[in-house]
Each structure stands twice: as structure tokens, then as C-alpha cells.
């Protein structure tokens, strides 16, 4: 089950780290869900077209970056309300995909294409190690991609010029402007990063299945958004939060076979957990605040 | 001797009009700055000092005019452009990032890197060297939020020096500082000037100006009045130039005299001084963020009396306003109404005690822009305009309509307040507060944002309240306004009410010197 959890964690983690960049820059990226969907669709199409996993991932990131750039343009240049722009991006994605898929494959629903490559796993020899083998080395490359992204994000956010300026843009944009940097630039780049990583998340989801389903992201964009806050806006905190959500997801799947409970109730578990987590988080925060003031 | 070298900055005929209120903040201002000089820019609030320096530092775009740097025409569209040219401004309230470390905050925008990573060690070492060099005492590793206000200012100045300025602009750098900190800032200024930096100091403190400057530029009403060598003038001459007292009465003053007919003579002979006070403020002190912003302030106001409080902003007027409105409880001291101390400091409690309050910041503190004009007008009286919490429509309409008539408010009664002009929004709030005033009325800057006609109406209203026996506190930075309306005037300087002037003592010159900190507290003598 732990193995399964780590697999399920990969897309949530990727999207959450992406959203973390935007959040640090002071933009709450509620478009994650739509960005994941577009990435997922692009991954299936280009995976089938080229037969290459790498190209499928690239295409996914590219497609989501394009959508993210529209979001960034509306929110930063046209000064649209960030929530409205984010919601519009999500709606645009859910409308755009059936439109394109209808034009290309004459279906608005499930896109099943021949030749979608499976995501390879890491180093076969290490996998055969007892106990640690399956837990650490048997995963798909999506998992390692997500973990590497987390580490890189941690370094970039805390140790580089770009990371410092992104944080400054989020904490006090005017302070950044007074020092001669344009906060909008850093916010835009952060949104594009969240687009790219959400696209990868989408690819990680569908390439496991080998098929595109409508609403295949199943709210993972929203869960990722909660994971950002639950992880105290820090990359490794987000990692833990993403793991918790993935665990509840795999628990729900596993419990279906064991417990005498309606499957639908169990499958709601991750979402219930999301709500509970959000409440617990805000309670802790307000307690923390009142102690400090 | 400084003028022998060519100017580093030549500001030519810069004009800036703010479209929001149509104020001509800078009116064809020309100014030259020379390398190695310390230039003080002085003038009343709104004289245009900050405006012109914000333009020079790329924070504001001028409507017309040009800036030349070493005789080369430059155009700044952001502070970043100006910093690249070596023009760095330290704002009066530097924008801060409380969660950052001090070194992160100061190096933001000019971070040194090694192999793509920020070189933290170099940052801290550089700052420590600067601290040692100038005798600054902040810890570069501390969190910004943990520094005291004055320390933050010193840190912000250090941050400006990191950018290797050729022109260093300091906006009120000494405002939050104690005397030793002022000395530190002065030594930083002198050291920078010795290296050939042109330092511009925007300040209100004439004594400091006389000590530190090479040259002094006086501004008034958006224009440069004069530029003089500090060695060739003295404090009272500069103060006179700031106040414009050597000038015959301008058009502004004459309008006021015309409108004040009838009440003028009353003003000189207050009706109720000596009678027992309605409101008494007893040794009020207030500390905010470890800084004493009000120190031992006492005064009384009797029925039928206007007590004026004036001074320059940042000297405690804003905080006095907040205490008198019940928004902040004083740290020490108390307020009594008819001899009974007020137990709780809250706006509601104050209203219950019969204190009406007209805030300075009427738009944000006093109004709901998206509610209708009528809704805004009835806010204070809502419980009396209907039955059991349900409004009676006709009563409400009648009430709002009568107020709109009385105060000549132009606009639609049911339209959102936002759609009215600025002056009319002001009138809505003023009329609401003055419709049923309590026995004590606190006004802060009553004429701000009003045109001449509305202002005269306002003044007439205050005179009427006084005649009706209300006790009135008038807080205003406008000396003319205070002289016009108040029976007695308390002058604030550096958190204290340094003197209360009555009768013939209340001259413009005297008040001006007191509020600029030129007059000695006890003797009233002028210090040079």
C-alpha cells in the first residue's frame, strides 16, 4: 500500500510544488486543476503520436505552460481578478479539451489511443533488493521526477536570487519594486513554472492509465492547493502533505475490497480529508497567531 | 565652492499634477544638485518636496519638464531605472518585508551570487563592514520584524549605500530617531558627501537642517521659493521663508477674512474659558511599537470653546486624533468628561458619552463607498428612523433629504456614494456627523478635500456649534485654519504639546517657530 501511495503522490506533489512557486510569488493559482487536465490530454495525444514518454512529458508541460501564460497575462497584465481568471482558466480547459478531442478523434469523452507508451521504472537490478527494493527503487520515473522537483524547488526558493525575489514579490511587491525589480515579472515566471509542473502532473496521471478520461485529474489540483498550505508553504512540508493525501487515496482504494462500506463513501475519503485538513490548518494558524500577538 | 563643479543633477521645469484631486504638487520646479553637497529640502506639508524627489527617484512620472544627469537627459519609468543611474531614495516609511532577514531585505535586487546561489557570507560581511565604518548597530542576520523603527531606518540607509549612489535622497530620515541615532545618521550623511555623493535631505526639523546642510532649498505650494547657503542664513529666516510670513496676505488668507465676518471678534474673546471644562485631557501618554508618540499631554476644553491643536505631521497629531476618537487607549493618563473619567476607549463608548468625531481620513474611516448616499447618511441614527429595527422609508428619505439640502450635497440619494465627487463625499460624512452633534465634537482636518465654498460652510458650521455651547477640539496642520477658528491653540512638536497659545499670542510666526522646533520650550527664545 505504501508503494501505491508513493505512486499516487507523484502527480499531487508535482502540481503542489508548481502551485507553491505561484503562492510564494503572491498568486494563489486556483487554475492548477485545469492546467493538470490540459497536460494530461497533451501527454496522451503526443505519447500516442511519438511513442516517447519523454516527449509526452514535454508536450504536457508545454501545453500547460501555454494555458498558464494566458492566465498570467489576464491576471498580471490585464489586472483581472485572480480568482475569476483562475476559474476561467479551469472552465476554459474543461471546454477546450472535448472541443479538440472531438475535432481530432470524434469523441468528447474517453480518448483511447494506440501506442501510448507506459512510464518506465527505475533501475531493474536495484528493484530486486529485499524490502527496500520495492519501496525505493521500483517506482515509475514520475515519482523520481516529483521528488527531484521538490529538492530543486527547495534549493531554488531559498538559495537563489530568483527564489528570493519570488518570495519578495509575494510578501511585499512594493518593496521589490522600490529596489528596482518588477514584481510582475517574477509572478509571471512563477505562474509559468506552476503551469509546467501541473502539466507534468497531468502526464503522470494519464500515462499510468494509458488513456485520457474526462476529468481525469479528479480534483487533484484542488488537493494540491490544500497541500501547499498544509505543508506550511515549504517544499518538504508540501511533500509530507502530498504523501498524506496520497495515502488516504490509496487507503480508499484498498478499503473497498476489505470493508463492508459503499465504495462511493470510501472514495470520498481524500476529499473529506482535504476539508478536515483545511479546518485543522486554519485552527492551528489562528492559535499560533494569537500566541504571538 | 561646491558650485564650481558642474551639477550632477539638473531638474528643469518639472510639473506634476495629481489627477485624483487636481493638485499641482510641483509647479515648474527647477533645481540643481552638486556632487558632495548636503542639500536640505524644506517646506510645509504639501509644499512639493517629496513629490519632486519621487520624480527624481523614478517613483512618479512628471507631467512635463526634464531631468539631466551629468548634462545627459534621463527618463525614469521605475525606481529601478533611477537606481541604475545611481539615484537612490530612502523613503520615509521604507517598504519592508518583515519575514526576511535584514541582509536579504537590503540586498534584494543586487544579490551577489556564487555559482548561481546567493552569496550569503559576502552579503553579511559587507553589511558588517558598513555598520562598523559608520557606527551603525543593527544585526544583519536579525529578522526585519525584530528591529525597532529607528534601527530599520538606519538599515534602510545602509541598504541605499550598498547601491553605490551618486545622489542619495533621504525622506525624513530622523523622524523616528533618538538623539544619538540622529548623530549616527548625520555622520553617515557627512561621510557620503565627502565621497562626492549629492545628499538630499527632506525634513521638517529646522535645527537639524541648520546643522547638517551646505545649502537649503525652501519650497512652498509646489514651487521653489529660494535656495540659500546654510552659512548665510539662520533658523528663523528659513522658518519665515517656509511659512511665507514675509509675504503680504495672499488670496487664500483674504477669502477667509471675508467669510469670517461676524465671528471674528468673538474668536478673540472666548465665551467660556475658565468655566468648568467639558472635556479634560490629563497627562496623556501613548507608546506605539516601543516609541513614545504622545508624551504627557494635558488640556481642557470648555463649553462654547474651540481648542485648536496644530503641528507638523509625524509629531503626534495623528495619534492624538486616534485617542480622542476612542480608537486607541492611552498608555498613561486619562480623559474626563465633566470631571468623570472615561472607563473604556472604544468609538461606541465615546459616542455614548456624547463625543462626535469627524476623522481626517473621511473616505476610509468614515464612509462606505459602495453603500448608497442615504445609507451613509443614516449610519448614526439608524435606531431612530423606524420601528423595531425596520426602517420607515419616508422618515429615512426625509432625514437624508434634509441633510442633503442643508449641506448642499449634489448627487443621487440612492446612488452609491462612490459615484459622488470627492468634495460631495466629504460633505456627506461631515453632514452625518454634524446632524446631531454631541456636546463634544472632535474635528480633524475639517477642510481637507473641500473647495473654498464648502470650506466656508464648514467654518460657519463650526462657529455655530461653538455659539451653541459645544466643546470643540480642532486638530489641523493648517495654521491659518487654526488661527481662524480656535480660541486657544496647542502646538505639538516631537510628541509633546510644547505650548498653548491664547489671545494675541497666537501669531502665525510664533506657531510656525514652535511647530518647527525652533522655539525653546520655556523661554520662547529662538535657537539658531
Give a short overview.
Chain A has 293 residues and is mainly alpha-helical. Chain A has helices spanning 2-24, 32-50, 53-77, 82-105, 124-127, 132-137, 141-159, 161-171, 173-178, 183-209, 220-230, 235-258, 263-267, 269-292.
Observed structural traits:
heterodimer, A: 293 residues, mainly alpha, 78% helix, globular, B: 528 residues, alpha/beta, Rossmann fold, 3 domains, six-stranded mixed sheet, disordered C terminus
Any overview of this molecule?
The complex is a heterodimer of chains A (293) and B (528). In chain A, 78% of the residues lie in helices and 0% in strands. Chain A has 293 residues and is mostly helical. Chain A has a domain at 2-114 and 130-218. The longest helix of chain B is centred in the middle third of the chain and has 16 residues, at 179-194. In chain B, α8 crosses α19. Helix content of chain B is 34%, strand content 26%. Chain B has a six-stranded mixed β-sheet with strand order 6-9-10-3-11-12, with helices on both faces. In chain B, strands 18-21-22-15-23-24 form a six-stranded mixed β-sheet, with helices on both faces. A four-stranded antiparallel β-sheet of chain B has the order 2-1-4-5, with helices on one face. At the A-B interface, α8 and α9 of A face α2 and β8 of B.
Amino acid at each position: 500500500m505504501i508503494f501505491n501511495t508513493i505512486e499516487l503522490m507523484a502527480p499531487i506533489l508535482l502540481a503542489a510544488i508548481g502551485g507553491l512557486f505561484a503562492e510564494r510569488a503572491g498568486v494563489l493559482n486556483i487554475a492548477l486543476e485545469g492546467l493538470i487536465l490540459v497536460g494530461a490530454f497533451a501527454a496522451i495525444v503526443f505519447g500516442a503520436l511519438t511513442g516517447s514518454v519523454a516527449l509526452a512529458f514535454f508536450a504536457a508541460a508545454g501545453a500547460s505552460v501555454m494555458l498558464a501564460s494566458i492566465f498570467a497575462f489576464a491576471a498580471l497584465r490585464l489586472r483581472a481578478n485572480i480568482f475569476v481568471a483562475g476559474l476561467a482558466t479551469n472552465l476554459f480547459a474543461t471546454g477546450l479539451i472535448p472541443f479538440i478531442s472531438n475535432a481530432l478523434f470524434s469523441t468528447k469523452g474517453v480518448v483511447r489511443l494506440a501506442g501510448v507508451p507506459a512510464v518506465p521504472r527505475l533501475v531493474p537490478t536495484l528493484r530486486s533488493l529485499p524490502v527496500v527494493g520495492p519501496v525505493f527503487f521500483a517506482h515509475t520515473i514520475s515519482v523520481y521526477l516529483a521528488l527531484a522537483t521538490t529538492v530543486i524547488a527547495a534549493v531554488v526558493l531559498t538559495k537563489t536570487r530568483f527564489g528570493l525575489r519570488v518570495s519578495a514579490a509575494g510578501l511585499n511587491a512594493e518593496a521589490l519594486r522600490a529596489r528596482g525589480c518588477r514584481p510582475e515579472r517574477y509572478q509571471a515566471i512563477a505562474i509559468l513554472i506552476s503551469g509546467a509542473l501541473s502539466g507534468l502532473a497531468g502526464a503522470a496521471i494519464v500515462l499510468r492509465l494509458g488513456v485520457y478520461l474526462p476529468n481525469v485529474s479528479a480534483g487533484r489540483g484542488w488537493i494540491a492547493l490544500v497541500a501547499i498550505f498544509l505543508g506550511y508553504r515549504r517544499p518538504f512540508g508540501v511533500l509530507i502533505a502530498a504523501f498524506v493525501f496520497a495515502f488516504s487515496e490509496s487507503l480508499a482504494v484498498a478499503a473497498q475490497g476489505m470493508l463492508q462500506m459503499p465504495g462511493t463513501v470510501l472514495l470520498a475519503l481524500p476529499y473529506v480529508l482535504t476539508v478536515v485538513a483545511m479546518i485543522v490548518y486554519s485552527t492551528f494558524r489562528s492559535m499560533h497567531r494569537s500566541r504571538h500577538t | 565652492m561646491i558650485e564650481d563643479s558642474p551639477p550632477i543633477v539638473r531638474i528643469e521645469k518639472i510639473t506634476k499634477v495629481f489627477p485624483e484631486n487636481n493638485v499641482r504638487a510641483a509647479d515648474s520646479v527647477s533645481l540643481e544638485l552638486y556632487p558632495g553637497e548636503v542639500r536640505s529640502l524644506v517646506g510645509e506639508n504639501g509644499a512639493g518636496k517629496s513629490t519632486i524627489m519621487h520624480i527624481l527617484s523614478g517613483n512618479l512620472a512628471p507631467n512635463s519638464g526634464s531631468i539631466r544627469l551629468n548634462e545627459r537627459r534621463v527618463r525614469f519609468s521605475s525606481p529601478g531605472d533611477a537606481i541604475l543611474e545611481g539615484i537612490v531614495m530612502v523613503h520615509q516609511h521604507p517598504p519592508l518585508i518583515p519575514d526576511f532577514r535584514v541582509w536579504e531585505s537590503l540586498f534584494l535586487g543586487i544579490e551577489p551570487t556564487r555559482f548561481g546561489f546567493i552569496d550569503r557570507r559576502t552579503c553579511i560581511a559587507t553589511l558588517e563592514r558598513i555598520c562598523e565604518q559608520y557606527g551603525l548597530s543593527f544585526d544583519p542576520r536579525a529578522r526585519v520584524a525584530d528591529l525597532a523603527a529607528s534601527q530599520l531606518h538606519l538599515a534602510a540607509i545602509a541598504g541605499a549605500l550598498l547601491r553605490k549612489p551618486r545622489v542619495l535622497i533621504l525622506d525624513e530620515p530622523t523622524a523616528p530617531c533618538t538623539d544619538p541615532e540622529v548623530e549616527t545618521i548625520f555622520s553617515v550623511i557627512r561621510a557620503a558627501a565627502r565621497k562626492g555623493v549629492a545628499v538630499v535631505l527632506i525634513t521638517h526639523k529646522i535645527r537639524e537642517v541648520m546643522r547638517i546642510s551646505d545649502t537649503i532649498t525652501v519650497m512652498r505650494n509646489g514651487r521653489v521659493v529660494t535656495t540659500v547657503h546654510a552659512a548665510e542664513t539662520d533658523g528663523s529666516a528659513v522658518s519665515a521663508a517656509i511659512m511665507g510670513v514675509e509675504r503680504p496676505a495672499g488670496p487664500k488668507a483674504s477669502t477667509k477674512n471675508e467669510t469670517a465676518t461676524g465671528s471674528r471678534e468673538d474668536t478673540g474673546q472666548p465665551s467660556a474659558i475658565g468655566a468648568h471644562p467639558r472635556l479634560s485631557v490629563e497627562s496623556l501618554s501613548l507608546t506605539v511599537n516601543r516609541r513614545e508618540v504622545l508624551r504627557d499631554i494635558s488640556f481642557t476644553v470648555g463649553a462654547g470653546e474651540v481648542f485648536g491643536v496644530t503641528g507638523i505631521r509625524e509629531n503626534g497629531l495623528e495619534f492624538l486624533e486616534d485617542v480622542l476618537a476612542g480608537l486607541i487607549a492611552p498608555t498613561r493618563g486619562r480623559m474626563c468628561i465633566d470631571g468623570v473619567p472615561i472607563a473604556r476607549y472604544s468609538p461606541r463608548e465615546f459616542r455614548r458619552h456624547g463625543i462626535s468625531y469627524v476623522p481626517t481620513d473621511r473616505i476610509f474611516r468614515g464612509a462606505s463607498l459602495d453603500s448608497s448616499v442615504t445609507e451613509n447618511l443614516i449610519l448614526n441614527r439608524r435606531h431612530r428612523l423606524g420601528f423595531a429595527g425596520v426602517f420607515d422609508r419616508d422618515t429615512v428619505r426625509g432625514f437624508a433629504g434634509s441633510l442633503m439640502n442643508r449641506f448642499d450635497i449634489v448627487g443621487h440619494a440612492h446612488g452609491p456614494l462612490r459615484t459622488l465627487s470627492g468634495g460631495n463625499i466629504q460633505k456627506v460624512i461631515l453632514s452625518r456627523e454634524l446632524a446631531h452633534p454631541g456636546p463634544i465634537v472632535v474635528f480633524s482636518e475639517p477642510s481637507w478635500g473641500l473647495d473654498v465654498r464648502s470650506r466656508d460652510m464648514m467654518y460657519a458650521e463650526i462657529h455655530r456649534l461653538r455659539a451653541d455651547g459645544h466643546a470643540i477640539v480642532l486638530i489641523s496642520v493648517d495654521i491659518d485654519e487654526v488661527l481662524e477658528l480656535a480660541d486657544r491653540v496647542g502646538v505639538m512638536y516631537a510628541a509633546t504639546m510644547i505650548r498653548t497659545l491664547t489671545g494675541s499670542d497666537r501669531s502665525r510666526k510664533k506657531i510656525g517657530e514652535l511647530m518647527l522646533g525652533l522655539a525653546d520650550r520655556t523661554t520662547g527664545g529662538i535657537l539658531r
